[in-house]
Amino acid sequence: xxxxxxxxxxxxxxxxxxxxxxxxxxxxxxxxxxxxxxxxxxxxxxxxxxxxxxxxxxxxxxxxxxxxxxxxxxxxxxxxxxxxxxxxxxxxxxxxxxxxxxxxxxxxxxxxxxxxxxxxxxxxxxxxxxxxxxxxxxxxxxxxxxxxxxxxxxxxxxxxxxxxxxxxxxxxxxxxxxxxxxxxxxxxxxxxxxxxxxxxxxxxxxxxxxxxxxxxxxxxxxxxxxxxxxxxxxxxxxxxxxxxxxxxxxxxxxxxxxxxxxxxxxxxxxxxxxxxxxxxxxxxxxxxxxxxxxxxxxxxxxxxxxxxxxxxxxxxxxxxxxxxxxxxxxxxxxxxxxxxxxxxxxxxxxxxxxxxxxxxxxxxxxxxxxxxxxxxxxxxxxxxxxxxxxxxxxxxxxxxxx
Length: 402
Description:
- The chain is α+β, with helices and mostly antiparallel strands.
- It is about 45% helix and about 10% strand.
């Protein structure tokens, strides 16, 4: 077990803690900040926005789609259409999940285990003899990216372009909100054109055994997806498939590098890996906040929400809520039950959660089988990305293979 260190965070008095300002102290150890938020009240507010701080408040926002909508008309990411199914509300949402859920079902993702294992070991082969690695760029980015490309049916040569799309979506250029949105809009148009070209070429071929072919050929209630719908699903897939698992890997391995006792638990007893993955997801929660929009005046835990308000549902704070978890500031691999909400909740719970779990479990298993002892370089200063929480420069040292 471990307890979060004191980060020396000032006891600020704000109505709304805005994530994404690249506050490195917060991003490295957000848990004490979450506790201060919860100590104030279940809902923090600012003009036009509210933020949940407790698990109960978050559940209210995520499990009441009639009032708290995911349909934001694409505005936050600069898209001209909603991402499917993330920004689609019922009843249309059910149509898309009916198509997509079977493609990402646990049994389907379990079939990828040999492929993921082979990919993990191939990546380790590339740096094991060196005794160090740029974990972020040599492991955490290529592993989920290559798995996703193979699953989706795109060549590995497309990875740099897709990573650029992803980076420009998550972290656009500019210094103002207007500049950010303009950059995202330009990027979205590039993504639309890219996938429109891919679809045009794929329709000239016989269907393959990949996800893109299934999107192009599978009927839902007697209808196939339009090209625009396939593009909107694909847009979401590159955001989720190329970033969130990378984020979780970097945060989890930094934690394990700093806590050798936890790392040794995994080495000594690999059977603990599934529950360790769940606890690391709870503690680190790379996707800190997700957004809803209120479609009516309402209340969350007795706090008013106005029609039109953005609701920032703070997953990270909910995952360390002392009313939900016993000893929430301790990392306990045996925690049971572990009702974390790192994958969101309600009808929009993460479509790729089973794939993420499979990749994380195999990565921890194979890495610790081959590289059981590793540490951070002396004087290492992590650089965290804003938006989605990730260690952009994670470097690990380990005994070089002879």
